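testing teh design pipeline on a random one, pls ignore if ur not involved
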């Protein structure tokens, strides 16, 4: 007893951060504990906001029709095409990030790993979305710390690109003329990009991973690679903005001169969703912010019309996500590869 007790006493206890790092490296390999209350609260908040938008449209429908709300579904065809191009290229850009980090993945696998977790975003919180992609990437040889860092690169650059597109809109918006904070994006955008410079991101990521008891990243993305990804996302957001414009056009007449404002409005919605990351896929928060922003393109300036447009855009985007994930999953099934649900189940019961 004495020798064993002494050995246990002399053995250093793992620090809190080391225990967190160990948890991060093993999470998904055992069944998660029940968090139903938390999920209900987060999901309820999102659906409450979205329900408010629906109620606004339904309660004011006759008035909204007088203000130009009408359905012209032919515009949904180019909207769906543009959004499908956006999702396909977004997956390819994430694959490019992994290649820059020294962990290339075949194009077909990149599409599958990026696509299938999209539907997991509709579960409140972002943990399962990140976990699903990390687990799927691990199965093709990408370590968890590399795929997680790749997601950090992706999110930071996409936010910076969205701010780039949204900058003029935020500065010139009539509702924000007396708000000095509207100038902040001009400062935040370059800071986000500079944060990913290897001389900045490298020491920070190494210090964090060491504190978590993990090995440093085997390779960082060069700053040239960061800039390549940044400009790629500016182009990607432009493509999504085009799809959003066509979806909005299916509900209310918009002139093509309104395209930049509609595209920037979508960026406002995206940024609002980033801030409220607990809501499933930004539901409610993203749509309300978009409705507030897009109403500036309307002669009436009516929020109800903006809400109708936001609902149409959300519905179109959800349909496109289902089409995209369905096509990618179909090709994966034909090649005998498991889907995200099977991957999560396998990991949950591993060991």
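output:
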């Amino acid at each position: 007893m004495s020798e064993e007790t002494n050995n246990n006493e002399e053995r250093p206890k793992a620090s809190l951060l080391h225990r967190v790092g160990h948890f991060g490296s093993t999470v998904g390999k055992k069944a998660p504990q029940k968090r139903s209350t938390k999920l209900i609260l987060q999901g309820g908040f999102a659906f409450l906001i979205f329900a408010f938008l629906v109620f606004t449209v339904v309660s004011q429908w006759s008035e909204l029709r007088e203000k130009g709300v009408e359905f012209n579904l032919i515009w949904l065809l180019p909207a769906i095409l543009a959004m499908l191009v956006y999702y396909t290229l977004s997956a390819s850009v994430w694959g490019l990030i992994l290649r820059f980090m020294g962990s290339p993945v075949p194009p077909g696998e990149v599409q599958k790993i990026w696509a299938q977790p999209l539907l997991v975003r509709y579960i409140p919180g972002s943990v399962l979305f990140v976990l699903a992609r990390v687990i799927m990437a691990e199965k093709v040889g990408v370590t968890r710390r590399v795929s997680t860092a790749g997601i950090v690169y992706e999110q930071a650059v996409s936010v910076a690109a969205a701010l780039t597109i949204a900058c003029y809109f935020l500065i010139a918006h009539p509702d924000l003329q007396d708000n000095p904070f509207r100038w902040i994006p001009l400062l935040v955008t370059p800071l986000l990009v500079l944060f990913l410079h290897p001389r900045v991101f490298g020491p920070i990521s190494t210090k964090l991973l060491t504190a978590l008891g993990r090995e440093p990243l085997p390779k960082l993305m060069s700053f040239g690679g960061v800039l390549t990804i940044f400009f790629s996302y500016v182009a990607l957001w432009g493509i999504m903005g085009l799809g959003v414009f066509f979806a909005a056009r299916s509900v209310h007449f918009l002139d093509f001169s309104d395209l930049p404002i509609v595209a920037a409005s979508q960026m406002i919605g995206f940024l609002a969703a980033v801030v409220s990351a607990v809501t499933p896929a930004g539901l409610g928060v993203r749509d309300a912010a978009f409705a507030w922003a897009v109403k500036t393109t309307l002669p009436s300036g009516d929020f109800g019309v903006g809400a109708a447009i936001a609902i149409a855009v959300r519905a179109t985007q959800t349909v496109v996500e289902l089409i995209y994930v369905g096509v990618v999953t179909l090709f994966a099934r034909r090649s005998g590869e498991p889907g995200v649900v099977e991957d999560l189940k396998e990991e949950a019961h591993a060991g």
